[in-house]
Design a protein that fits this description.
The chain is an alpha+beta fold. The chain is built from 22 helices and 14 strands. The chain folds into four domains: 103 residues, Winged helix-like DNA-binding domain superfamily/Winged helix DNA-binding domain (Arc Repressor Mutant, subunit A, Orthogonal Bundle), CATH 1.10.10; 131 residues, Rossmann fold (3-Layer(aba) Sandwich), CATH 3.40.50; 119 residues, Tetratricopeptide repeat domain (Serine Threonine Protein Phosphatase 5, Tetratricopeptide repeat, Alpha Horseshoe); 126 residues, Tetratricopeptide repeat domain (Serine Threonine Protein Phosphatase 5, Tetratricopeptide repeat). The strands form three sheets. Strands 9, 10, 11, 12, 13 and 14 form a six-stranded mixed sheet that branches. Strands 4-3-2-1-8 form a five-stranded antiparallel sheet, with helices on both faces. It comes from Bradyrhizobium shewense.
Length: 516
Amino acid sequence: MATILEFGPFRLDGDAGILFHGAEPTALGQRAVLLLALLVRQAGVPVSKDALIEAAWPAQAIEDSNLTVQIAAVRRTLADISGEARWIETLPRRGYRYVGPTVTKSDPGPARTPQAPLLSLPDRPSIAVLPFTNLSGDAAQDYFADGMVDDIITGLSRINWLFVIARNSTFAYKGRAVDVKQVGRELGVRYVLEGSVRKTGTLVRITGQLIDASTGMHVWAERFDRRSEDVFALQDDIASSTVGAIAPSLRRAEINRVRRKRPDSLDAYDLVLRAQPDVDSGMPAQVTQALVLLERAIALEPAYALAHGNAAMCHHCLFLRAGLQETNREASIRHARSAIAHGQDDAPALTLAGFSIGMDGHDRSAAFIAFEAALAISPSSALTYILGSVMLGWGGEADRAIEWSEQGLRLSPFDPWAFAAFDAQAMGHFHRGRYEEACRAAYRSVQANPLHSITHVQLAAALAKLGRLREAKAAATRVLELHPTFRYGRQFQGVNCAPALASSLGDALRVAGLPE
């Protein structure tokens, strides 16, 4: 998790490359932010010109005048906003030193972004399942505990009347001592499930307790002992018991809906669990690693829908971010079709497959059939809404894209895929000519995932439309740093961008300096 530097009225998120004044991002460019971050981290200590140049222009030979220009931009921004002139001192022939207000560091943890509204309780029972503590004494078993929780969340999400927070948001609390009342307030839920897993050899012991977050009172607690080959039955037991504790009058038929078809091979299941974090990263190098594990899982169990869905997403990432190679596009569609064929009761598999069919196969109708099927199975599937919002955004359905993205973020406020939801909002607002709103959404997308080039594309376009050309060109430069072969015409063709949106975005990106 990134560290936020706070000084005077400013907050600096170095990973996102954004300086904030209160809740609003400032106009300071990427290199200037890097310089300011180094100076602020070493507040009161001289920083040499060489160190500053290496921070902002790593391994590049540049003139000192470039540094002078960027430092001047930092000083001007800080002074104009704060009304105070004394922030950075020049040390002749030595470098510079930060001399402003005291600097404090904070871990943002899962705190909401400043613009996010407080969450009210839904009009139906709501629950968040926190990461279970791994008591096995072996950190390598974390993936097993995480996978256990993931399946419990998936099972609970199949209950139509239950509002379930996505695992990507609840896992923001992993490894932290938490107050369940605060968790309930932050996630907007009535109930919180927490527990622990101890795996020794073939034996697994899970303890779980359900707490009413509004009062802190325990609603239910149980301990389960199983052999690891019975792990799927164990997951169903816990999910069913939790649902029963929330609504004791629940019909047995509803509880049975928690149960779903499982992969026959525990080895294949284990491989998918290990691959999942790299799949979710959306980064080419990591998804390449994930594909090795997923291909092994599919070799063990050819009809494993979720393995195919994840493989489709990996190839989608490689297609868009590693050269638009036809082999990746074809593999994405092939695995997506397998996921749909074998995953009619698996919401995550249908979601990932629908996204690949729509984005890479350019069949949005088939994609939304898969999305609707996923939501019929799991109404609380945040990922379905988020990925659907991206497809709606590129398809030019601005209002629906914003609606779906907001629903996805409500279900999973701290989701690692939040950048994609904000990206969809930026596209929607851009398409409607609301460039200030598009810029704000794009900034939030960049902050959520500063290493994803598309987030900077949306930011460059919105800034260009606002006439903020210096900042737009800085964002465009960052796009090419992250994705040197980026060409917006090829990108629009790859995602089947709606013609009117492609024309407007293309005009803005051309002004920002990105190549067609």
